[in-house]
Amino acid sequence: MTEADVIEQMVEYQDILLNGVQVFFTVVSAYVVAVWVFLRHAGFGLRLFSFFFLTLVLAFLGRVAYGSQRIHDGFVQTLIELDQTVGLSPTGQAALDNALTGVDELIQNSMNGALVVVYIALFFLTFFARSTLRSNARPGGSA
Question: Rounded CA gap, 80 and 36, in Å?
């Protein structure tokens, strides 16, 4: 695999990562709307099922992200080997520096931390925040 191939695949990896972030925000946004519109009036069983389903979706996204991270680590290892044998272009060196200086890890850890915070907040909103979700609107009617 040449440096150009690795860089091309790393850019594709970043595209997949951004698509995963987009799916994450879409799922979380839809769930917040569901909590506001439906789940605040629902019984415990429906809340439990909804949160379980959300957990499955987020676990699936997490598993995909983990697999992508392992592939990314392979790309970085390939860049290290290319750097040691034939040297890297400035683009390849920049991509390698991002990995070796911790920029990529910082982004990954930030995303993981955000996932944990959002998951805890959605757990709270689903099961314990009924009083904080009240509005002047009545179900099925106008304000």
Answer: 49
